[in-house]
Design brief:
It comes from Mediterraneibacter faecis. GO terms for molecular function: transferase activity. By secondary structure, this protein is of the alpha+beta class. The chain is built from 6 helices and 8 strands, in the order βαααββαββαβαββ.
């Protein structure tokens, strides 16, 4: 990945045995400059949930910094979750790959398996435009981290969910993610909205 940036697992700031330990209060201060008005759920997660989710092993958040001035340019959060994919929504080639690592429910004709989830991905819009990290580089850091996990523990699939937004859908499909379903969820203001689910074989 680009040597203009570096990533830090926030465990490094929370573990007293690590030389990088700063504690929760200082970590909250570090995160407080993050702003993502284009997706308030992404902003809310980092400012209010990322630390607790990491402590409880629900997901792990990685911060991405500018190597030149150590400014926080973005973050991503990863976890492992079960995923259900209807056979009718994917190609025969994908179904064949899935069948090797999943269970097929004959009644629903859906494959169920565990996969790496890119649970959150967001760039810091509080920075000047010229300092913001390109989306493909930020996504690349998340994919690179998953690749290193695959090397250690295995796994064949990664997936994510994104808003019903033409730009985002185009961005992820250009990065080789394939749409396979949608689901309705509620945002922070409890308004229902559609999320597109996309997968990619590692």
């Amino acid at each position: 990945m680009s040597d203009k940036y570096f990533t830090v697992n926030i465990r490094a700031y929370l573990d007293k045995d690590e030389p990088t330990y700063i504690g929760e209060e200082s970590l909250y201060d570090l995160l407080s400059d993050f702003s993502c008005p284009k997706n308030l759920d992404v902003e809310y997660f980092l400012l209010h949930n990322a630390i607790e989710f990491t402590k409880k092993d629900q997901s792990i958040t990685y911060l991405v910094f500018d190597a030149e001035d150590a400014s926080l340019v973005g973050y991503f959060s990863l976890t492992v979750k079960p995923i259900s994919v209807r056979a009718s929504n994917i190609s025969k080639t994908m179904a064949k790959k899935l069948s090797r690592v999943s269970i097929l429910d004959e009644e629903t004709q859906s494959y169920t398996t565990a996969a790496y989830l890119i649970a959150q991905l967001g760039k810091n819009y509080s920075l000047p435009k010229e300092k913001r990290i390109p989306g493909n580089i930020l996504l690349g850091f998340a994919l690179e981290t998953i690749s290193s996990l695959k090397y250690s523990v295995g796994g064949v699939m990664e997936f994510l969910e994104c808003e019903d937004n033409e730009f985002l859908l185009s961005f992820y499909t250009q990065n080789h993610f394939k749409p396979f379903d949608t689901r309705i969820t509620a945002s922070q203001n409890n308004e229902p909205h559609t999320l597109h689910q996309l997968l990619k074989f590692i």
